């Protein structure tokens, strides 16, 4: 057998062995494993989970009274517990009707009016399956949100108060880290509970008003979180999270971060920042350039914001550590996207380790949530004192817990 013939034999032989694997993968039955919706002040999202990658057919975007998403050409089974009709009824989407069978699947979304929509897919990532997502814009939602933030800014100047933007990490499709199955707790739920409690505590301090970036279970892109704070003319930004270690059941304590422009102090901090920054990938937000940061990298405003952020982080951690319920892991720096505004000092509080069964139980406890919220609020008040910022009494705190 000649050299050329041998090469051809090897190539065709390898192809013959590879083909069955490809065919087997393609023939794996597909199931619709989840169907759910999330409603936010500006839009409603419908998410369809699949057991594996599928080819869907639908307009990428448009405006109409509804939209049809099809998965043609292969059998699709309805997973256990998945409804064939999803009633939404939030003023944006009426319902989603699902049809599955040997010829494929069809998803009909019925809107309350002729509305703008966007359809896209998200790859399987971590514990998230392959998903097809439909985002539908709420009429007037963005305008109402902008007006609300502008009203907060106007009132802040009139009443001479300090506004603290409280950011509950994750939300909606982005669940964040998960606690042990025996505890049953999600980071997105813990962060919202602590954030709401923190706003309540801040609003008991004369001259301070706390405002939530999100007050419900829905997704907000990372950049939009601090941009909300900028629009409301916030004086301080506090993002609430729960830590998690790659090693099962390990890790303990609380740590507070402020922004680093040169990367994280060690690999663990970098891994944590990468994990939190991946929230936009989970939520389907396209990558954004950071050229605007380069232009102001050495700006005095940036330097001042970082110095104040460090003071804020130290003040908050001191009060958390004084409780002695959790170990203090110190003040650290990392490149968290959510901390990248130059308009105010910003910190990210990793309250406790949600993968640690003992601390997961604490995070699920209302008593702990209220307690750490109180400590953070006292730390913020101490920061104002150390920074020489006088607090004026806020004579009218109506709707103070609004998002």
Protein described:
With 403 residues, this protein is of the alpha/beta class. The protein folds into 2 domains: 29-137, Immunoglobulin-like; 141-386, Zn-dependent exopeptidases (Aminopeptidase, 3-Layer(aba) Sandwich), CATH 3.40.630.40. The chain has helices at residues 3-27, 141-159, 187-202, 222-231, 267-277, 279-283, 291-295, 300-322, 357-364, 366-386, and strands spanning 30-39, 43-50, 61-72, 76-78, 85-87, 93-101, 104-122, 130-137, 162-168, 208-212, 236-243, 254-259, 328-334, 346-353. Helix 8 crosses helix 10 (366-386). The longest helix is centred in the N-terminal third of the chain and has 25 residues, at 3-27. The protein is globular, with a radius of gyration of 24 Å.
Q: CATH topology of the largest domain, which one?
A: Aminopeptidase
Helix amount: 25-40%
Mean pLDDT: 86
- Using only C-alpha atoms, the radius of gyration works out to 24 Å
Order of helices and strands: HEEEEEEEEHEHEHEEHHHHEEHH
- Sheet with the most strands, sense and barrel status: 8 strands, mixed
Total domains: 2
Low-confidence stretches: 1-25, 394-403
Number of DSSP-assigned strands: 14
Instruction: State the CATH architecture of the largest domain.
Output: 3-Layer(aba) Sandwich
Structural class assignment: alpha/beta
Distance between the termini: 77 Å
Residues in β-strands, percent: 25-35%
What name goes with the CATH superfamily of the largest domain? Zn-dependent exopeptidases
- Supply the CATH class of the largest domain: Alpha Beta
How many helices? The count is: 10
Q: So what's the overall shape? A: globular
């Amino acid at each position: 057998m000649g050299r050329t013939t041998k090469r051809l034999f090897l190539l065709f032989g390898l192809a013959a062995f590879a083909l069955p694997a490809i065919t087997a993968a393609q023939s794996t039955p597909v199931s619709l494993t989840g169907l759910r919706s999330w409603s936010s002040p500006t839009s409603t999202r419908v998410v369809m989970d699949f057991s594996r990658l599928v080819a869907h057919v639908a307009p990428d975007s448009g405006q109409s009274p509804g939209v049809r998403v099809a998965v043609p050409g292969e059998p699709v089974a309805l997973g256990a517990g998945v409804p064939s009709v999803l009633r939404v009824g939030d003023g944006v989407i009426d319902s989603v009707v699902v049809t599955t069978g040997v010829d494929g699947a069809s998803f009909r979304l019925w809107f309350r009016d002729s509305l703008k929509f966007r359809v896209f897919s998200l790859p399987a990532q971590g514990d998230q399956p392959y998903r097809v997502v439909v985002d539908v814009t709420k009429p007037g939602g963005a305008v109402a949100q902008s007006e609300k933030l502008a009203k907060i800014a106007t009132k802040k100047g009139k009443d001479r108060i300090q506004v603290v933007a409280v950011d509950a990490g994750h939300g909606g499709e982005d669940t964040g880290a998960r606690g042990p199955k025996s505890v049953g707790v999600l980071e997105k739920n813990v962060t919202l509970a602590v954030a709401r409690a923190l706003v309540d505590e801040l609003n008991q301090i004369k001259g301070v008003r706390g405002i939530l970036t999100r007050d419900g279970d829905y997704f907000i892109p990372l950049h939009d979180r601090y941009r909300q704070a900028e629009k409301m003319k916030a004086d301080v930004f506090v993002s609430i999270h729960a830590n998690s270690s790659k090693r099962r059941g390990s890790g303990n304590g609380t740590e507070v971060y402020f922004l680093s422009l040169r990367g994280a102090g060690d690999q663990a901090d970098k891994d944590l920042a990468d994990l939190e920054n991946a929230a936009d990938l989970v939520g389907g937000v396209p990558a954004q350039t950071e050229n605007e940061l380069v232009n102001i990298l050495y700006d005095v405003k940036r330097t001042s914001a970082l110095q104040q952020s460090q003071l804020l982080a130290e003040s908050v951690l001191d009060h958390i550590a004084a409780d002695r319920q959790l170990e203090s892991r110190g003040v650290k720096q990392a490149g968290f996207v959510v901390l990248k505004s130059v308009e105010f000092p910003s910190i990210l509080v990793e309250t406790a380790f949600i993968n640690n069964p003992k601390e997961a139980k604490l995070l699920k406890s209302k008593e702990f949530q209220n307690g750490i919220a109180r400590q953070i609020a006292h730390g913020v008040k101490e920061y104002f004192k150390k920074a020489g910022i006088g607090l004026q009494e806020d004579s009218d705190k109506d709707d103070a817990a609004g998002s």
